Amino acid sequence: xxxxxxxxxxxxxxxxxxxxxxxxxxxxxxxxxxxxxxxxxxxxxxxxxxxxxxxxxxxxxxxxxxxxxxxxxxxxxxxxxxxxxxxxxxxxxxxxxxxxxxxxxxxxxxxxxxxxxxxxxxxxxxxxxxxxxxxxxxxxxxxxxxxxxxxxxxxxxxxxxxxxxxxxxxxxxxxxxxxxxxxxxxxxxxxxxxxxxxxxxxxxxxxxxxxxxxxxxxxxxxxxxxxxxxxxxxxxxxxxxxxxxxxxxxxxxxxxxxxxxxxxxxxxxxxxxxxxxxxxxxxxxxxxxxxxxxxxxxxxxxxxxxxxxxxxxxxxxxxxxxxxxxxxxxxxxxxxxxxxxxxxxxxxxxxxxxxxxxxxxxxxxxxxxxxxxxxxxxxxxxxxxxxxxxxxxxxxxxxxxxxxxxxxxxxxxxxxxxxxxxxxxxxxxxxxxxxxxxxxxxxxxxxxxxxxxxxxxxxxxxxxxxxxxxxxxxxxxxxxxxxxxxxxxxxxxxxxxxxxxxxxxxxxxxxxxxxxxxxxxxxxxxxxxxxxxxxxxxxxxxxxxxxxxxxxxxxxxxxxxxxxxxxxxxxxxxxxxxxxxxxxxxxxxxxxxxxxxxxxxxxxxxxxxxxxxxxxxxxxxxxxxxxxxxxxxxxxxxxxxxxxxxxxxxxxxxxxxxxxxxxxxxxxxxxxxxxxxxxxxxxxxxxxxxxxxxxxxxxxxxxxxxx
Length: 707
Hints:
single chain, alpha/beta, Spore Coat Polysaccharide Biosynthesis Protein SpsA, Chain A, 2 domains, seven-stranded mixed sheet, elongated
């Protein structure tokens, strides 16, 4: 069997001080396969050329060692590397700078994963080991990390050191693929193409001895900017020609085919989700305020109009009263859509449907990261066909926007947990904080977040650092709005909804204790508040004092019956699919029938009978969607039980942080639409379980194919 060869591409430009020593190190580097040195002189103006030619005469080729020298006009590192790759013939190709920053003794570490068939691309990382955290200047270090994180963000990778010199490739692959960049941008270009084509880039630890600017380091800040742009460009640029090139390599057929299937599966599910939501929104577009508005919608809409007409965050246009009950995320989003569309409500509906479908993409990539793209495809399809997500898509409520942010928050937390990269944790916490500005309950997500961090497989020092960063990010993002509310007289609060909790959760609690109708209880509480405020106008001059009264009254209720109140949190109907909203959007049924009161006091069966008392035809019409939701919940529940059986505690913690948190925290007033931010993880859990069943059946002789 023919001995394999490593082609070592050495671009050289004005390296007379280091080139000879580098060539000696390369020649003497311990290696289990043959070496082919491809030295590319990129128009050096010093004596580098003479030194190289002299060294070649002194070191003639042998059976296991050969050199190839190329002279070319100066065109940049990328052009030199490309020329060297084209002329190389080795089974494996590695890039070696001539500046002695990298040690050729690491060649074997870099090529072993390729020789062993683990991967076809290996990057030698300077960041995998803390001992390599040295750099020429802080700007070089920060620039390298910025480019790496930017590529990770764009391509869903977990690289730690993209700008590394030691990029190692399967020879046939890199000679077929190649790149266009002539300068330093060749590196993000080839990385981008490899990641988009579905290749896994494995990283290994290499040594690094950086040289200073005065020693001849050539890269500039403009190269960093060019690299960022190049990575962004190749994220969206067409690569069909690269795919065609790879089809000439028989061994790459399956990878290219699988990558295309992944993309088209994701795109198809997104289109299906968007089409379903738009079709179901058509009746509502003719009368959005009648069919797609709910009791909370008017508050959001009036604030949005105030932003547009008055340039102020007030309760309504011309009111002059600062709005403190609602956080600014959804009203600002709605105001932006109204501004863009010249106050077109149908346009807002279309964008909201698009946003709902976009959640499917986030779920797809979450499932792909956790267990493969087929799991992601099933998970996203379950969400696309979930009746609650379809119903809420076109509605003028904050739930869809919040669910989108929560899904991204979940995605990046999974990325952090598996990669141990704080970059992802910071993004996850950032989105959680933004979520708190859409629905204030997310301000409490800091608690499960800290638990997940402390339970993770990290050192005590890293756990402490991550926890501090989490608290700081939450404070930095939501702090300004808390300060604004304080200045508006609402106290140090993110929102004033806590003052209304007495009329909602408090009414449910009193209804449970007394057996009275919730509507009547709520009316009595409103009357009580009005009487209190009129009797003592001096005590309740501002919103903060009135909110404080509501909070105090509510806490006194809970203090009288704490266990009853706690028991009201555990209500399975929160997972009941939101068929009523779906049917109301279509104009088939109408709301505001007191169904929630019946549900709270008498249960799901009584509520269904009450809502569909005129006939069960609409219920049977949506039965297929209800069945999909039921199967999703059952599969997710089975996955959770299996995780508990196998003591997979992280999955339990994720369930508590991303499912139970959103179902439990809202309290007794919990409605089916509140399940929406919990749905992404439930769909992922369900899809993972489906594929575990598929694997079990295949092991017992049953062949199944999903996607």
